[in-house]
Amino acid sequence: MTELTGTNYQLPNLPYAYNALEPIISEKIMKLHHLKHHQAYVDNLNTALGKYHQAESKKDVGAVADMIALQQAIKFNGGGHINHSFFWTILAPVSTGGTLSQSSELLEMIVRDFGSFEEFKKKLTDACVGIQGSGWGWLGYNKNLKRLELSTTANQDPLSAQGLTPILGVDVWEHAYYFDYENRRKEYVEKIWQIFNWKAIEEKFDKAIL
Q1: Are 169 and 159 in contact (CB under 8 A)?
Q2: Residue 98 lies in a domain
Q3: Is 168 found in the same domain as 110?
Q4: What average pLDDT is seen over the chain?
Q5: Within this chain, do residues 122 and 170 fall inside the same structural domain, yes or no?
Q6: pLDDT tens string 160-200
Q7: Residue 5 — pLDDT band, cuts 50, 70, 90?
Q8: CA 23, 19, 201, 130 torsion: positive or negative?
Q9: How far does CA 34 lie from the centroid of its chain?
């Protein structure tokens, strides 16, 4: 999903129209989220990386402090780009998102690791609602233990930093829902299940377990 032009990261196109996720997520939210917030992560990442490479090229001890100082900006904005690029691909209009196949290996593993799909849905929803401040709720795959795990990350930290491969993620930053749901995060999280692209999610799972 991430694209490079020279050394600059680019904002990816959405795989659907800005109004395609209505009424769950409004066109207003999607334009703000994609064109403003995600674009800002991309722009700030490119700026930070440019400064980092300039410092690195100096090859002196003094430049190391500059490189260290830039790492937080790279982490935050790079994580924002990674997370959002992933997030757009696992959403789809209500009419086309489909449902998780009853014969899928993903469902089989969800039942094995969480007891049932409904229990998994409840646990992930509760985890998302319970995040203090801004962050993400995730279903990830642990390659070492060969199992699914639920996790949360603060701010824009990517799930890969925890050693997990993302399968499904929910953005619970206020900019993802506030115009539509105000402070009703739980309502937003409960409704977003209606627009998950289960075909795409299964494809990500299939790649993760290889």
Answers
A1: yes
A2: no
A3: yes
A4: 94
A5: yes
A6: 999 999 999 999 999 999 999 999 999 999 999 999 999 99
A7: very low
A8: negative
A9: 13
